[in-house]
Recover the amino acids of this structure.
């Protein structure tokens, strides 16, 4: 396969391939983080995760339209404002959903699967009725498009770098919040023992609501970022849901570190296999690998020891 | 929805009739045969008992047809345009006197992007509602699901999408292109005009791209003496194309030949652009991007790519100008019109022409009369139904522009004969 290429060509291709793998890794982490919080920390199987992401994407679209029409001079920075708005829009919707629906189902985790799946169908139809069934194109500011040439062949995509930077920032923020702040301590306490946490004076209902909101808000930011690389339409959220669950379950549902490790493993496997085999075959082999590992380690890669 | 539109049309109907009359004057001899201005007296001449011997929903004053598309679910993105075009055509036919003097009423059913639902709704339209014709379906999967229903209950379906061929039925009129019509002329053009010899084929992983690529590969290797340097399929909904883009960079094909659909389509072009592949320098020919798709992809992300279709919204002919104006008047200035939308618009008109040629609504007679039925006012230009129930049509190449429209760069001189079972390509 490589016989006809020179050494320098080969090395630059492998460099770009490595970079492609890193972009995929960032994308996986970004989409899985919100779910890792909700599924991992709260045990809620949120099938509507993709729809929370798409809400963020639509917010981005409308922000871009607003800037284009009213303050075109600031169009270059609209994306940052859009991401913040997306966080609050998806987070607010998440908290509303938690209050109306999820909190009645904490004792029945499997029912959350059905309920949130229904919610995802409802949200899709709402988007379709409100925003129209066609996909919308989100225009990016000029500086976010294109790539930086490193050598003749090697080029680094700017939006890839952007996604990477964003992923690192959000991961660090979430880790600090979970493991260094008082609120994070409360969340972990509720996860470990809800009754006991309540007994020592933690308002568990409030913690639940904000945790769910945080997970959904991060999903919104992810959706906002993915307008750079993917489509924005009523059903686009479905494109991400399988990969998202794959990453979270494979990593071990309750561990943020596990999510990151699993995103890394899956993305590298996928992108390397895609290069050597065809796209469909790469997917099949990746899934097969995940299934085999999960058969051997049903709890996923990383497991936190919890006294039950 | 439709009642609103009826209101808006009341105010403008006089002006529209005037306009249509004026537009039709030069083409009057052609139109006479398709009965555009048939008078009410014509209807009285043909009693309902004579034009409807099989118990269809036809009365002295009106005839009922079905519209069967997905307005919910994944496919709503694509099928919305078809529904709009069919309603426009029906509205126009009614304004100009109806079919055999009868006004068309429609019953719309939602296939909900679910193939068994399509079959169920098709049965409902044919058995309960006794519709005289159905305009509908979009994906091949939905068409395959309803085909047995149409054959069993003897209905007639007008199917608008370009598709993979390898099918022919008495009960279906295919108003889009079959694969050879869409593919061969495009490959010939890029080979001759751009000197293309090496091709990278990339598509979504299901029947239409696979069959199309098979035809493309045979043509490239056997007829053009070219080489396929890569052939890749990705699962539907795949959103990460960086690896294959690296492979494309490595193999440096003259042409990227793409049939990626749905949300993947958007991801593919955005990532090509981000990876620094400049479509004004790298030739890319696609068979899956119309104006509808560009709406989601963003014109600036795909500008420079070539698309192989039979219709573009920007076609410069009087029929199309009138069609685009009417379409936007009915559905809003911002709507775009893609290849399939135009093909869907042909359905009701071809049905009307066939019914009036047969002087009957009976499905058998309409199917028989459909052969050689022509529609001179088609926005794509003149079309005619072939005995194999596909359309004679031209193939065109358009170059995508940043504003989301295509610029026509090539069209075949003659109509291409439809060949759903191409010899040497299977």
């Amino acid at each position: 396969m490589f016989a006809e290429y020179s050494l320098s060509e080969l090395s630059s291709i492998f460099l770009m391939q490595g970079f492609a793998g890193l972009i995929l890794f960032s994308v996986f982490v970004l989409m899985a983080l919100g779910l890792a919080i909700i599924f991992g920390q709260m045990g809620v199987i949120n099938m509507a995760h993709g729809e929370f992401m798409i809400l963020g994407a639509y917010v981005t679209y409308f922000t871009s339209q607003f800037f284009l029409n009213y303050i075109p001079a600031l169009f270059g920075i609209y994306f940052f404002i859009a991401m913040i708005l997306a966080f609050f829009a998806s987070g607010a919707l998440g908290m509303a959903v938690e209050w109306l629906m999820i909190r009645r189902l904490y004792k029945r985790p499997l029912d959350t699967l059905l309920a949130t799946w229904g919610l995802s169908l409802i949200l899709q139809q709402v988007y379709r009725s409100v925003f129209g069934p066609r996909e919308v194109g989100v225009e990016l500011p000029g500086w976010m498009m294109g790539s930086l040439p490193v050598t003749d062949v090697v080029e680094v995509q700017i939006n890839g770098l952007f996604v990477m930077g964003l992923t690192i920032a959000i991961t660090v923020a979430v880790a600090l919040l979970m493991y260094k702040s008082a609120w994070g301590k409360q969340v972990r306490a509720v996860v470990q023992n809800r009754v006991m946490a309540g007994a020592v004076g933690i308002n568990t209902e409030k913690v639940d609501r904000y945790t769910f909101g945080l997970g959904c808000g991060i999903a919104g930011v992810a959706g906002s970022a993915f307008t750079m690389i993917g489509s924005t339409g009523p059903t686009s959220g479905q494109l991400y849901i399988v990969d998202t669950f794959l990453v979270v379950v494979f990593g071990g549902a309750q561990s943020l570190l596990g999510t990151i490790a699993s995103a890394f493993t899956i993305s590298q496997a996928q992108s390397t296999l895609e290069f050597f085999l065809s796209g469909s075959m790469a997917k099949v082999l990746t899934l097969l690998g995940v299934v085999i590992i999960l058969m051997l380690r049903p709890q996923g890669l990383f497991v936190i020891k919890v006294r039950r | 929805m439709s009642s609103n539109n009826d209101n808006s049309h009341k105010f403008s109907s006089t002006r529209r009739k005037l306009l249509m009359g004026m537009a039709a004057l030069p083409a009057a001899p052609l139109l006479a045969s398709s009965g555009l201005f048939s008078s009410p007296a014509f209807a009285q001449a043909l009693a309902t008992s004579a034009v409807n011997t099989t118990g269809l929903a036809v009365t002295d004053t009106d005839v009922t047809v079905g519209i069967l598309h997905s307005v919910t679910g994944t496919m709503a993105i694509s099928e919305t345009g078809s529904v709009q075009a069919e309603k426009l055509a029906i509205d126009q036919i009614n304004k100009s006197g109806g079919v055999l003097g009868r006004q068309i009423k429609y019953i719309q059913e939602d296939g909900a992007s679910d193939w068994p639902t399509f079959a169920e709704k098709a049965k409902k339209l044919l058995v309960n509602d006794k519709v005289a014709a159905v305009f509908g379906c979009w994906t091949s999967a939905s068409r395959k699901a309803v085909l047995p229903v149409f054959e069993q209950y003897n209905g007639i379906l007008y199917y608008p999408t370009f598709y993979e061929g390898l099918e022919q039925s008495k009960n279906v009129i295919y108003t889009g292109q079959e694969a050879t019509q869409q593919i061969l002329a495009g490959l010939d053009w890029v080979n001759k005009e751009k000197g293309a010899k090496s091709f990278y084929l990339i598509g979504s992983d299901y029947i239409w791209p696979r069959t199309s690529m098979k035809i493309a590969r045979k043509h490239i290797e056997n007829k053009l003496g070219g080489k396929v340097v890569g052939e890749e399929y990705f699962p539907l909904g795949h959103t990460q194309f960086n690896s294959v883009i690296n492979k494309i960079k490595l193999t440096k094909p003259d042409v990227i030949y793409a049939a990626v659909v749905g949300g993947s389509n958007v991801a593919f072009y955005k990532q090509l652009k981000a990876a620094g592949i400049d479509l004004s320098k790298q030739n890319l020919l696609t068979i899956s991007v119309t104006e509808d798709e560009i709406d989601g992809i963003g014109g600036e992300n795909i500008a420079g790519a070539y698309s192989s279709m039979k219709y573009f919204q920007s076609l410069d002919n009087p029929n199309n100008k009138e069609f685009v104006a009417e379409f936007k008047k009915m559905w809003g200035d911002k709507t775009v019109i893609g290849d399939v939308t135009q093909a869907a618009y042909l359905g009701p008109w071809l049905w009307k022409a066939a019914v009036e040629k047969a002087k009957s609504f009976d499905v058998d007679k309409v199917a028989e009369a459909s052969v050689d039925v022509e529609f001179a006012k088609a926005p794509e230009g003149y079309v005619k139904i072939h005995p194999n129930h596909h359309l004679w049509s031209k193939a065109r190449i358009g170059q995508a522009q940043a504003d989301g429209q295509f610029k026509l760069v090539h069209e075949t001189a003659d109509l291409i004969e439809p060949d759903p079972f191409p010899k040497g390509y299977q």
User: Anything to note?
Assistant: Chain A touches chain B through 52 residues (CB under 8 Å).
